């Protein structure tokens, strides 16, 4: 594949968009005096969504699986969030190797502010794209994600 075709490939473009989005999101958090990376924000979102549906904590392994990230990477993100008091870890009573992770009360205000910042970054990134085009793009990407998940199992 030539360099030009590679730079126009779906994999390259989605990866680049993700990295650029994460970089900008981390910068905006920093500008708002929030000491959080985009990767840590991903962990918080997974916890927030899980807890709102299940009302129970998750294990670090579950978070890694949902984010499709290495356990060591998720563990580093969790370490940083725990140091700031935004999440807490507890050993599983049934398996001492497993740790449950949950959001703290202290994280709620930060989650609200970060949600607003993330929504603004996303709106800025999508500016000028018609809603119908955006929906089609999301449908196509969701299909690619489903297919890649099947291929990875």
Could you explain the architecture of this structure?
- This protein is mainly alpha-helical.
- It has one domain: Winged helix-like DNA-binding domain superfamily/Winged helix DNA-binding domain (Arc Repressor Mutant, subunit A, Orthogonal Bundle), CATH 1.10.10.
- Helices cover 69% and strands 8% of the residues.
- The protein has helices spanning 3-7, 10-31, 38-54, 60-67, 71-83, 107-126, 131-151; strands spanning 58-59, 87-91, 99-103.
- Strands 1-3-2 form a 3-stranded antiparallel β-sheet.
- β2 (87-91) and β3 (99-103) form a beta hairpin.
- The protein is globular and about 50 Å long.
At CATH level 2, the architecture is: Orthogonal Bundle
Q: Quick one: CATH superfamily?
A: Winged helix-like DNA-binding domain superfamily/Winged helix DNA-binding domain
What is the total domain count?
1
Let me know the average pLDDT.
Answer: 91
Characteristic key phrases:
single chain, mainly alpha, Arc Repressor Mutant, subunit A, 7 helices, transcription regulation, WH-like_DNA-bd_sf, MarR/SlyA-like, DNA binding, HTH_MarR-typ
What would a concise description of this structure say?
The protein has 153 residues and is mainly α. The chain contains seven helices and three strands. It is 69% helix and 8% strand.
Task: List strands and helices in order, with pairings.
Layout: H1 3-7, H2 10-31, H3 38-54, E1 58-59, H4 60-67, H5 71-83, E2 87-91, E3 99-103, H6 107-126, H7 131-151
Antiparallel strand pairs: 1-3, 2-3
Pfam family, one: MarR_2
GO molecular function: DNA binding; DNA-binding transcription factor activity
Organism: Vibrio furnissii
């Amino acid at each position: 594949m030539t360099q030009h075709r590679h730079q126009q490939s779906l994999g390259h473009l989605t990866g680049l968009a993700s990295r650029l989005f994460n970089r900008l999101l981390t910068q905006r958090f920093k500008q708002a005096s929030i000491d959080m990376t985009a990767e840590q924000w991903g962990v918080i979102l997974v916890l927030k969504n899980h807890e709102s549906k299940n009302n129970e904590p998750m294990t670090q392994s579950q978070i890694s699986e949902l984010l499709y990230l290495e356990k060591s990477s998720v563990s580093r993100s969790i370490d940083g969030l725990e140091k700031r008091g935004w999440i807490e870890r507890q050993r599983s009573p049934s398996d001492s190797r497993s740790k449950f992770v949950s959001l703290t009360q202290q994280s709620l205000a930060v989650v609200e502010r970060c949600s607003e910042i993330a929504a603004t970054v996303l709106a800025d990134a999508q500016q000028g794209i018609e809603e119908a085009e955006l929906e089609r793009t999301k449908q196509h990407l969701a299909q690619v994600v489903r297919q890649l998940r099947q291929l990875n199992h």
